[in-house]
Amino acid sequence: MAETKENIVMFPFMAQGHIIPFLGLALELEKKTGYTITFVNIPQNIKKIQPLIPPTSAIRLLEIPFDPSAHGLPPSFETTESLPPLLMLRLFITSPSLQPAFRKLISDLVHEHRQPPLCIISDMFFGWSVKVAHEFGVFHAIFNVGGGNAMTLFHSIWLNLPHKKTESEEFPIPGFPEGYSIHVKQLPDHFHYAVAGDPWCSFLKQMFQDWLESDGMLFNTIEEIDHVGLEYFRQQIGCPVWPIGPILSSLGSKARAGEEAESTLNHCMKWLDSKT
Hints:
about 40% helix
């Protein structure tokens, strides 16, 4: 009997900005480890992901059932790019409803492979997936597709709402080293509308709580750029934090084929060169 390969399950949020880095990581893992990769997403996105996978890749795509209309989303919903802000918020808040279907998907994989996956790498917004992973005794990691410093600001400000506790226009960032501060004008508008206990804050509070149970965090960055942010998470979350970036891929341009791109990699590189 042939030896069963180890299987890694990857589950990004339903947005191109999350799916593309996840797919880039999946291709790197497949190339460097030889493990089988199971890539999970809703049917609306699986159809768009399939053409992005190179013909030489054996990455397996699995659909997880999702009925947009059951959650007040357009029945023809295909991509987050077409959703207005209020419906985007609804998509985030209803994402835990995927948990039963994800549990069944993992159970089916265990039955098929006669062993649990080696690990589950989930999106930061799917913190609830750690419960499913641990039910099956599987290592769980969160992949943050952005940098450590930006994610630290996101985590610290939403967790503490420090701008709501001071009349000063500039305030320190909880958890950051002394001397780091931010001005209220630097905050996006939705931070100003936040109220502790509202649906979005409640969703994030539970998500941050779920992060504490994860076995590790991955960031699409390098230590030299985001050391402060990475150290913040090592202290706040208390699990191993690995910078694994930068994950660069041409998949993003393929996914947006036919669209007017605002910039290209060459354009960005020239701009960076002009700043040195």
